[in-house]
C-alpha cells in the first residue's frame, strides 16, 4: 500500500514539496523511505503476532485486526491527499483519524500480545511527529482562496 501511494504521487512530489514552507525540524526527504521501511517491518511483524495468537482470521480477530486494517487504509490514503491532490486539510483530517485508530489498535492488542503492542510504539512516535509536521505545514501554507462570485 505504501509503495503504491509512493508510485502514484512521486512525480509531483519533489517540486511541490520543496516549495512548501516547512519548519526547521522537518526531517530530510531521504529519511522518510528508511523510516517507513523500518516502521512497516515492525508493524507487519506485530500484526503477524496478533494474527498468530488469535489463531488466524476468526471472530476473535475481527476487532484487533480490523482496527489494524483500518489504520493501514488511512496510512495509505495520506500520501495521495498530501502529495497527490495537495489537499493539506484532508491530509490533516486523515492523519488525526489515523492517530486515533493506531491508539485504538494498540489498546486492543495490549491484552493479546504486549510485544506486538510495543512494536507499534515507534510507529506511533513517528506519527506524532508527522501529525505535528502536517499541522505546521497546513498552517504555514494556506490554500489559495477562490475568487468571490459577483
TrEMBL record:
Gene3D superfamilies: TspO/MBR protein (1.20.1260.100). InterPro entries: TspO/MBR-related_sf, TspO_MBR. It comes from the Eukaryota. The chain crosses the membrane at residues 31-50, 62-78, 90-112, 118-138. It holds the Pfam family TspO_MBR. CDD domains: TSPO_MBR (cd15904). It is a multi-pass membrane protein. Keywords: Membrane, Transmembrane, Transmembrane helix. GO terms for cellular component: mitochondrial outer membrane. Belongs to the TspO/BZRP family. This is TSPO protein. The gene is Tspo_1.
Amino acid at each position: 500500500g505504501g509503495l503504491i501511494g509512493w508510485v502514484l504521487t512521486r512525480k509531483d512530489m519533489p517540486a511541490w514539496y520543496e516549495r512548501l514552507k516547512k519548519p526547521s525540524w522537518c526531517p530530510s526527504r531521504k529519511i522518510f523511505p528508511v523510516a517507513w521501511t523500518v516502521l512497516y517491518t515492525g508493524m507487519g511483524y506485530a500484526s503477524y503476532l496478533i494474527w498468530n495468537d488469535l489463531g488466524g482470521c476468526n471472530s476473535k480477530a475481527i476487532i484487533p485486526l480490523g482496527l489494524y486494517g483500518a489504520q493501514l487504509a488511512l496510512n495509505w490514503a495520506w500520501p495521495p491527499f498530501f502529495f497527490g491532490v495537495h489537499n493539506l486539510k484532508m491530509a490533516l483530517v486523515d492523519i488525526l483519524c489515523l492517530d486515533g485508530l493506531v491508539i485504538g489498535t494498540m489498546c486492543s492488542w495490549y491484552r493479546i500480545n504486549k510485544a506486538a503492542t510495543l512494536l507499534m510504539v515507534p510507529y506511533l512516535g513517528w506519527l506524532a511527529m508527522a501529525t505535528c509536521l502536517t499541522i505546521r505545514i497546513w498552517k504555514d501554507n494556506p490554500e489559495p482562496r477562490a475568487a468571490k462570485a459577483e
